[in-house]
Amino acid sequence: MTKYLVSIHRANDYDPAVAEDKAMSRDIDALNDEMMIAGVRIFVGGLQPITNAKSLRRQPDGAVIITDGLYLKTPEHVGGFWVLETADFTEALAWGRKAAVACRASVEVRPFH
Length: 113
Description:
Number of helices: 3
Strand order of the largest sheet: 2-5-1-6
Distance between the termini: 12 Å
CATH architecture: 2-Layer Sandwich
Strand content: 35-45%
Radius of gyration: 16 Å
């Protein structure tokens, strides 16, 4: 069995208070229940808004600079994720498809080493 990161990607201006309705919450809860029943879910976590993020960058002299915001300057960010343990990549992708539908978002599935 291999572990996989299934990450949910959101636009930087994503506002869960506006975008997430009862149906979406119900779909995500149902997916979490399904993952638990299947025994594949190791960990799940939603992340706070990007306004609460801090980035740490090591400088050539060894100093570490802390700045507000995301590390990568991109139009999207990781809004939450699951760590799953599945038999193979095909099964992990099937869970990723379900996550994309439930979360109404783009999803990345990536195996751990």
